[in-house]
Amino acid sequence: MTRIVPRWEWRTFGERFDAVDAQLDALSVERLQDSDEIYLLSVHGDASIKLRDGVLDVKHREQINDDGLELWMPVMKAAFPLSAADVTSVLIALGVPVVPLDRTRYTLDEFEADLIRPNPDLRATRVHKRRAHFTIDDCMVEETEVTVDQRAVRTIVIESPNAELVLATRRRLGLDGRRNVNVARGLKSLVGFGAKRYAVIDVGTNSVKFHIGERQADGSWRVILDRADVTRLGEGLDESGRLTPPAIERTVDAIVAMVEEARRADVVEIAAVGTAGLRLAPNRAAVTDAVQARGGVGLEIISGEEEARLAYVAATSSLPLGNGPLVVFDSGGGSSQFTFGHRGNVEERFSVNVGAVRFAERFGLADKVSEIELDAALEAIAADLERLDGRETPDAVVAIGGTVTNLAAVKHGLVDYDPDVVRGTVLDIVEIDRQIHLYRTHDVEARRQIVGLQPKRAEVILAGACIVRTILTKLGSNSLTVSDRGLRHGLLAERYAL
């Protein structure tokens, strides 16, 4: 009797694998196969269930190890027609309730018609495969072109009973850093089965940011919508200590409109969070109560430390950063958040009440100012950022938020905002000083004509640039890297990850 041995598997999907192709082209193809198969997919799990040549093959995932490899065990092989007992086993593997069966045996057509098609949580997907098999260091490596409904994608899989051999082969093929996506997740993502949409609303002192992300079946995210509405919630807060009725009305209107838009987009959940402006205002309930009453959504006010942590998660996941000392900061309208650490390891995080709205109002930076007035503002910002004094210069500084993304857009002269251009932009002190001089010498109306600058940020961009400049000086760094990811992306990834 043949002993069944579970195998560790690592798989990736994609369009191009240039480094892998170069190595596989130098090897002999051991076997080339074309096949037409049917995969049974479920929103409730990732069991591998396929029909090939009239035989149903079921594998169960036994374990996921610390390196993300998955251990798969064959648990069933059966030919159609299936017995009622085999059908019950398949339904259990798919993670759906076992229903009373009307037949003692099921043909494939009966199985699909009675049990798969009526259940919205299940799908039978017809797949054509063209597979090339190789052996590398005792690992089975298979390169496959998968075609579903005239859509094609490539997948590379590495299998072995020995997990260390799988890791070594993955490294040899230059695939380290890619996510492990099993075949069920990959197919569900390809056909759009099981995708869910989530929305995050980030209520800041100067703007309300709105993001809808669609989580694919393979765990990746697709951006559906990402924008910011400048509502100036913190207008007058520094002077009076309270949110003003017009600012509250503007902001609540924007939030409620976003909630309605999210529901029209069929999101399954909405998370709304408030930051510095709401943390500081004693009449914050005027906003939270109105949002609950008009939009039916709770607005959670998070701490500065949590804001910094989520920003760090978002920023470090979207840029190719080294493993040395790293600082991530977000200079917002009402506060600035800082996180110190190494990639994947947070060592310190804090928030200080240094924001662009406050300093724009306090020093008249919404309009032209003299060099003397500018120096006074820079001196006050430096005093309020004293917590940065005396620190070692980090290997990398990453900045997020509306100020730096606008500085990057102005640097590139972007008529239309392009996140792929902004993300990874390096802003050095020379460029920041150039833009500070540009904004200092232009009134608010002239600033609105500057290519790349969001018109509604014209009042606060000079103050924001001064804060960014001061932070770099305090950290002893000559430049920063811009990330277009922020709190909303970190919250989305953490709260709604698979």
Explain what you see.
There is one protein chain. The protein is of the alpha+beta class. Helices cover 35% and strands 31% of the residues. The chain has 18 helices and 21 strands. It has an eight-stranded antiparallel beta barrel. Strands 18-17-16-19-21-20 form a six-stranded mixed sheet, sandwiched between helices. The longest helix has 20 residues, at 245-264. The radius of gyration is 27 Å and the shape is elongated. The mean pLDDT is 91.
Task: Give me a quick take on this structure.
This protein is an alpha+beta fold. The chain has helices at 18-24, 84-94, 108-116, 163-172, 183-191, 237-240, 245-264, 276-280, 285-295, 304-316, 356-363, 371-384, 402-412, 419-422, 429-440, 444-447, 461-475, 487-495; strands at 7-14, 31-42, 48-52, 55-64, 70-79, 82-83, 105-106, 122-136, 139-148, 151-160, 196-203, 207-215, 221-230, 269-274, 299-301, 326-331, 336-342, 345-352, 396-400, 426-428, 479-482.
